[in-house]
Amino acid sequence: MSTKMTIMTMPIERLENPHPHPAFAKVCAALDALHIDLGDQCRVVDRLRALVERGPRKHILVIEGPGGVGKTRSIDVANGTIQSMEVAALPVNICRVRCTGTTNASVLGELICLDLRVPPSGLGNPARLASYIQIQMPKKGRQLLIVDNSHFLDQEGRSGEGVLRILGSVIASGAASVALVGRENTSAIGKRLKEVVAQTMEVVTVEPLKYENGQDLDAIKAFLGLLADGLKPALAGSGVELKLHTDDMAKRFWAGAWGVEGLMITLVLETLRAVLEGPALQTSSYLIGKDDFAEAWRVFAASETPLTFNPFSRHDAPTLGEIEQARARVKQKAEEQNSVVLPKAPRGPGARIWS
Hints:
Rossmann fold, 2 domains, alpha/beta, single chain
């Protein structure tokens, strides 16, 4: 996995405070300017580049994975919003839309027209809207359409058919290549599009950092180390010191965020908020330790991970064996939810014979 630090301009989501501590305001600004190249994200940009180089040949690219693993950030790298040290931005004009809730044909059409900077036409009439968009996109020089949060695309009834008509029209007409980006079920709409207009579909999966053996800790420590280094200038003069790139912290953070990079950043951000905006520091130098992260984990991550204990409250870090046990519980729960329980035939006197 690549772990180089570069500059980004896309702010991360965070809780807002109208009167932040001066040092915390600097921390937020530093995070807005921080980007750490990760292998899966770079691979997404490479596959988007390959999609564009093929040209609009009825090929669909689906990028899917859980929240917080950098799918949207990959798009930022592709369109040049983030400057990466590993991969270059795509040398094409991109039409990029982001769904924020259930998105039917009219909403999708409005989002596309807004990015193209043309007045919407045909809202409520998917056929007319699809024809309008396929004409406007080449006029505006767009060669790639990326739909972020595609798991919000409506796939039911007439609204769902309208979404397919718009995307299918772009693909079939050769107006632009299409990439769908979203959560794990995004490939479902990709498959429907493939059945209608496409010849092939490629699925790229973006995953959290893995921790399956001791060697994996190196990548986790590298990520945490670059994160701490990127925040060091912002914390200068605050009396607060952040040290994350140790085996102990790597194990705690991976288990606490279940490998999701965005959740790791949230734990660091909210812990720094609590320390900087809490009671005045009693010493001129304060090293943030595992106990400081415990409350942030309880509030922001406890419901997002399968752990049955707070990884920052214990004296010892979670072991790989405990993590494997948590994985096994997740797998067992999934199997139980997917299993079909058949009714049992009654037994004893008077029982009927079931055919």
